[in-house]
Structure to design on (449 residues):
């Protein structure tokens, strides 16, 4: 009997020890409310300190009717160490010159690298003697409604103002097109955003950019003064910002595919409300009332995602669109065109000789053209037709290689040729398009000079 005492005693000691250790772990001191609040406060302070060196003030000047310069201020942030800066397009719209102010109050003249009015994104570049601090872009797909959001910018010329809130919503899209086609993916926040915040970053708790602060929305009956506008704030999602910003740095502009329809979401897909004349949709046989259910074999239900799919399609390449017409499925081959300058919000030059006599607006061949126009090769040289008048024998996106046997590499060369040859009644153009390489005879309108 005594022999059993020791194992029992050992087992009892073991359980007592475990219980004691568990009790110690359970009674470990929990942080007080003040300590928790202090930790959160320190996190915000750290984000502000780390981020502000990469945030800039953007000062743009545009010319008024009386030739005076109107000053406008906004925000931005350094995207790359070499001085590339992201901001809103509306901050620098129609600017004749732009300045950028850093945290140490030094100012630089900024070069406009490129703008995309469809998404309200612009890229600037300053030349600094050394590498500059930058902000990292987060993956906005991983942003969660309810997480902290930190806005930093220059509202009302109050430089480097920090405000805090939460992410109130994702995937917002509510702006009307109003002449241009908009591509929207807004993050909604209740962090205080106001005039001057535009172009500045919306950050997560790690100091990563989840969006560019872009606009404020308020109910029409909400009282507001010229100084303060209360309402929900919206930031362009970082994934869209990264995509557009990278393309602007590479090409200087965004080349988008164009279909040429007005549309509306319905239960079965996307119904075509109107088809524009002489557009890819019209030329392929699509009609008002058709319900688009597939694009290149993929089901479509969301108009924003469908618009983005068309925009990212290669110009000159055929896409397959499946529609419901009178209850039956039909598939159409549509050759995607480049979005006209009118819908892209680009200024249109109507005073050129080429426009007046040829009915064409042209521009220099750019790097991005080779990626978007399937019929171009790296060896091609010439000028791209950017806009055409009605009934022109030349399509938008056509490459003009030569005029009357003379190679043309810039819009200025074409202008000079037309200026010298004002008595000519026609020109023979060597062109390349989705139809291949060919010669086209163009009748010239009489010179008005």
């Amino acid at each position: 009997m005594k022999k059993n005492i020791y194992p029992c005693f050992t087992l009892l000691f073991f359980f007592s020890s475990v219980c004691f250790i568990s009790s110690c772990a359970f009674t470990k001191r929990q942080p007080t409310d003040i300590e928790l609040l202090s930790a959160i406060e320190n996190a915000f302070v750290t984000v502000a300190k780390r981020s502000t060196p990469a945030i800039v003030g953007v000062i743009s000047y545009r010319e008024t009717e009386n030739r005076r310069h109107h000053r406008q201020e906004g925000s931005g942030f350094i995207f790359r160490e070499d001085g590339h800066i992201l901001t809103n397009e509306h901050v620098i719209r129609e600017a004749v010159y732009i300045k950028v102010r850093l945290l140490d109050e030094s100012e630089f003249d900024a070069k406009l690298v490129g703008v995309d009015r469809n998404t309200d994104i612009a890229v600037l570049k300053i030349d600094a003697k050394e590498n500059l601090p930058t902000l990292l872009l987060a993956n906005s797909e991983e942003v969660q409604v309810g997480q902290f959001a930190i806005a930093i910018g220059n509202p009302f010329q109050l430089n480097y103002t920090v405000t805090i809130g939460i992410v109130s919503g994702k995937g917002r899209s509510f702006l009307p097109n109003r002449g241009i086609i908009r591509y929207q993916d807004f993050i909604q926040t209740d962090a205080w955003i106001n005039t001057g915040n535009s172009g500045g970053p919306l950050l997560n708790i790690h100091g990563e950019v989840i969006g560019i602060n872009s606009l404020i929305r308020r109910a029409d009956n909400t009282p507001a003064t010229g100084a303060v506008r209360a309402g929900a704030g919206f930031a362009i999602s970082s994934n869209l910002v990264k995509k557009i910003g990278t393309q602007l740095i590479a090409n200087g502009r965004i080349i988008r595919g164009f279909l040429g329809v007005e549309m509306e979401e319905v239960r079965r897909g996307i119904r075509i409300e109107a088809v524009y004349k002489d557009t890819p949709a019209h030329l392929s046989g699509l009609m008002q009332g058709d319900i688009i259910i597939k694009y290149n074999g993929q089901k479509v239900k969301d108009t924003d995602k469908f618009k983005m799919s068309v925009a990212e399609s290669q110009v000159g390449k055929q896409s397959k669109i499946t529609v419901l017409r009178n209850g039956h499925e039909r598939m159409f081959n549509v050759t995607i065109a480049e979005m006209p300058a009118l819908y892209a919000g680009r200024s249109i030059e109507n005073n050129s000789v080429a426009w007046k006599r040829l009915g064409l607006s042209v521009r220099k061949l750019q790097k991005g053209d080779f990626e978007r126009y399937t019929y171009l090769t790296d060896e091609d040289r010439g000028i791209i037709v950017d806009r055409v008048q009605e009934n022109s024998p030349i399509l938008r996106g056509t490459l003009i290689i030569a005029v009357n046997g003379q190679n043309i590499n810039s819009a200025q060369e074409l202008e000079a040729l037309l200026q010298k040859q004002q008595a000519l009644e026609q020109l023979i153009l060597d062109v390349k398009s989705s139809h291949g390489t060919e010669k086209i005879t163009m009748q010239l309108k009489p010179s008005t000079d």
In short: Confidence is low (pLDDT under 50) at residues 5-15, 18-23, 221-228. Residues 5-26 form the longest helix (22 residues). The first strand starts at residue 55 and ends at 63. The two ends are 126 Å apart (CA to CA).
